[in-house]
């Protein structure tokens, strides 16, 4: 298994003082399930679809009034660009989360990693392994 791969789009970021409705609309426009919360250049939290559902919708709070800082998940779990797919998946499984912030070598935001992309990488790896095993099994050796 290789290292995590980042997409070409910059990660969606929102500010702690943004309203939940503004941040949620940005997430919908980008087609993402989470946004990194930045105070200046510092990662201070993550706001996910689950945060919105549990802490705003199910709690019958007004998303036009509630601020991102009031519902974001913090502190943030992060990995770096040299993290393996297996290690990132393990961290997500241990903490029951679906998104990880990715930091570069200077501890600056490099991206957001979604569980579905890790699963795609793991599935691709498994398919390659099965293909190699099938090729090995199907090779006709001496006497075959």
Structure description:
The protein is of the alpha/beta class. It has one domain: Roll (CBS-domain). Helix content is 41%, strand content 20%. It contains five helices and six strands. Helix 4 packs across helix 5 (115-138). The two termini are 33 Å apart.
- How is the CATH topology named? CBS-domain
Fraction of residues in helices?
40-55%
Question: In which order are the strands of the major sheet placed?
Answer: 1-2-3
CATH homologous superfamily identity: CBS-domain
* Class computed from helices, strands and strand pairing: alpha/beta
Low-pLDDT parts are none
The total of helices stands at 5
Percent of sequence in beta strands: 15-25%
- Determine and state the CATH class: Alpha Beta
Query: Any idea what the CATH architecture is?
Result: Roll
Beta-strand segment tally: 6
Globally, the shape reads elongated
Instruction: Please give the alpha-carbon distance between the first and last residues.
Output: 33 Å
The helix/strand series, from N terminus to C terminus, equals EHEEHHEHEEH
How is the biggest beta sheet arranged? 3 strands, mixed
| Mean pLDDT across all amino acids | 86
Count of discrete domains? 1
Instruction: State Rg.
Output: 20 Å
């Amino acid at each position: 298994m290789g290292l995590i791969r980042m997409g070409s789009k910059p990660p969606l970021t929102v500010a702690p003082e943004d309203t939940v409705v503004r941040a949620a609309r940005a997430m919908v426009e980008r087609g993402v399930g989470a946004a990194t919360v930045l105070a200046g250049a510092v990662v201070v939290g993550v706001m996910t679809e689950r945060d919105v559902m549990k802490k705003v919708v199910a709690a019958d709070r007004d998303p036009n009034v509630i601020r991102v800082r009031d519902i974001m998940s913090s502190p943030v779990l992060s990995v770096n660009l040299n993290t393996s797919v297996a290690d990132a998946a393990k961290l997500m499984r241990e903490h029951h989360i679906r998104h990880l912030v990715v930091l570069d070598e200077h501890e600056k935001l490099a991206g957001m990693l979604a569980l579905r992309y890790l699963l795609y990488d793991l599935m691709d790896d498994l398919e390659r392994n099965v293909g190699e095993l099938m090729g090995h099994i199907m090779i006709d050796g001496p006497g075959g």
